[in-house]
């Protein structure tokens, strides 16, 4: 997700996408009582190359101390501020099927500065039911309740995703996380991040098959 501060600093999108990885690694280090971390150690914890990490962090104006490393608390604070995590962001999950249920019950949002405040569906059989302590509402009710800034999470079937996105955008939504296995079209100024679980599994299947082929080739070559 892009932030205003990131735009001001002109931070590359690829760097923005890696900042949450660094923050997660830093939080884990802090929980173990680590106060200072080298770029090599942080890169290993985040699963990236140390040279790339140093370049990414330089966009934040953070260079660490030569021969010492990065102060874990300070760097966590810098990244959190850059990502806009000093605010509590309001989230609406749209689509209350199995995936929507699971996302509504996920406790990790709150620990990262995101408050799931609305569950939205257009099915009369679902509207009014309680899920994870929240009552499911429709878009008309969301329009009455929603503040100016909402992050929408699309968990609809693919055939309903575009309409749901259009309705959310009409309410002023400018940031969408799309779990629906399809591409949605949005106007300029609306940011969409796509999470395609099936595609990720297919990529893993490719690597699994490739590894199997290499193993079989090694065995055949040894005979």
Automatic annotation (TrEMBL):
The keyword Repressor applies. GO terms for biological process: negative regulation of DNA-templated transcription; response to redox state. GO terms for molecular function: DNA binding; DNA-binding transcription factor activity. The keyword Secreted does not apply. Residues 84-183 form the CoA-binding domain. Its main location: cytoplasm. Transmembrane segments: none annotated. It is found in: Cytoplasm. GO terms for cellular component: cytoplasm. Keywords: Cytoplasm, DNA-binding, NAD, Repressor, Transcription, Transcription regulation. Residues 21-60 bind DNA. NAD(+) binds at residues 95-100. Belongs to the transcriptional regulatory Rex family. Homodimer. Modulates transcription in response to changes in cellular NADH/NAD(+) redox state. This is Redox-sensing transcriptional repressor Rex. The gene is rex.
